Amino acid sequence: MKAIENIVIIGAGNVGSHLAVALHNKGFTISQVVGRREASVIALAEKVNAPFTLSFEEVEKGRDLYIVALPDQAMDMILPQLPLSDELLVHTSGSVPMSLLSPYSDNVGVFYPLQTFTGQREMELNDVPFLIEANRIDNENRLLDLGRMLSEKVLVVNSTQRQALHIAAVFACNFSNHMYDIAGKILEEYQLDFELLSPLITETAAKAVALGPEKSQTGPARRNDMKIIEEHLGLLQDNMAARDLYKKITESIIDQTKQADDKL
Q: What pLDDT, in 10s, does the model give residues 154-166?
């Protein structure tokens, strides 16, 4: 089994950039950076000392690995442009099945980092879970070896499991961040700093991981404290979107709490 040494990065957005830099720092050769946005592609190519192209049809053939780090909705348009046949081709998506790649190479897989990436933030990948899938055991082993160079948490999951993880991640990350945004706007309305919530956010996340989210749930909905809940709804009467969201989430917590209590 030939180890992966040289890698083509297809996509210079947040995920592609973080992976390219991390792999470059671990001693892998980034053979080429490919993408549509010239400024992003050039910036990444300079960081990892690689040539680049803005044409997907000019992807170099014969490299050990091709990482497609593109938006899900762009894959159907871009994959047919790649001049590949039997090279190891993987994507980094949480929700796209591995089978999407099958028409474009005989060797395909998934190399999905379960993390949120933002261009302005540097990030260590050592504790980021990497979820691996491949169409053959030798490809799976090559991707496992690669993942272990970046992280201590590397495991094999199938496409259905990965999609479930992606849905869970949307709730845990994207929806939670939206709640932070709402909280920040409420505080701003009353001339209060979002930084006041920082210790609470940190402890809530740490406690959920340590104890489990069900055991960590607190607040007026958990206590079924209707007096406080009604007061909060009254305070939100001029913000109907936040008020409706507050009501729906409160009802969900009350319902889940009742179900948990009924099991006792």
A: 999 999 999 999 9
Same domain, 168 and 112: no
Residue range 90-118, pLDDT digits in tens: 999 999 999 999 999 999 999 999 998 88
Q: Going edge to edge, which strands form the sheet with 65-68?
A: 52-53, 29-34, 6-10, 65-68, 88-91, 107-113, 130-134, 154-156
Do 150 and 178 fall into the same domain? Answer: no
Residues 6+ positions from 81 with CB-CB distance below 8 Å: 56, 57
In the chain, which residues have pLDDT < 50?
Answer: none
Strand duo 130-134 + 107-113: pairing = antiparallel
Residue 206 domain boundaries? 163-262
Query: What distance in Å separates the CA atoms of residue 104 and residue 86, rounded to the nearest whole number?
Result: 8
- State how far the Cα of 59 lies from the Cα of 78, in Å rounded to an integer: 12
- The domain spanning residue 81 has which CATH number? 3.40.50.720
Task: Report helix angle 226-235 to 240-262, nearest 10.
Answer: 160
Distance CA 133, CA 140 (A): 6
Q: Does the predicted model carry a pTM greater than 0.85?
A: yes
Q: Is 111 a domain residue?
A: yes
Whole-number pLDDT of residue 75: 95
Give how far the C-alpha of residue 185 lies from the chain's centroid of Cα atoms, to the nearest Å: 25
Enclosing H/E stretch for 184:
helix 176-189
Q: Which of 113, 134, 157 is the last residue of a domain?
A: 157
CA distance 90 to 67: 5
How many C-beta neighbours within 10 Å does residue 30 have?
24
Q: How far is residue 251's CA from residue 255's CA, in Å, rounded to a whole number?
A: 6
Would you say how long the chain is, in residues? 264
